[in-house]
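Moderator note: this is an archived Q&A kept for reference. The question asked for a predicted structure of one protein chain; the sequence and the answer are reproduced below.
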Amino acid sequence: HVGEAANGRYVEDQDMAKLLEQKWRALPARSFQDWGRPDTLPVDRALASPLPAPLREPADVRAEWDRLFGNTESLRDPFGSEVFLTPQVVDHWLEQPKRLDGRERYLPLLRETIETPFEIWANFAQNELGRVGLRRYYVKRVEVVEDGKAVALTLIAEVLPGGRWGSIDFFRGRSPQTTSRSGVLVWGRP
């Protein structure tokens, strides 16, 4: 719907909800070692700060999203691809408050994960119905301050077909996150 797309609705809400509910798994692909990439990601200084504490009230999460990105925002990654940030993922989290698992605390880091990642990967994933789709994964490791201590986090933003943001995850520790660092290396910082 051209008119709806102009107002920030790139995918019908019910279609996006179906995509978010499905369990997808990455298909076997070349690993980061095959591409000559380092086992451990370098740690960058975060450009933004995480929220001081996880948000538990749906209205607070939505207000924070609106403050950071408005209704819809379009970002460009280093490869030149456009990524559309819409509130559909956040709305999906808010449908069931148990989905508020701490990821929302790192929404301020989403912009830099897409605009200044360490790597961008493309890989095929398959859902339980056998449908195959292409995903892009933006990977970055940053140091943030939490509870007065410096902590290194690996951030992974998933982008769905059509350039629509699909999720953000974070990991502590030094794990190389092999699932998100496989497929085709679209772009990588030296």
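Archived answer notes: The two ends are 41 Å apart (CA to CA).
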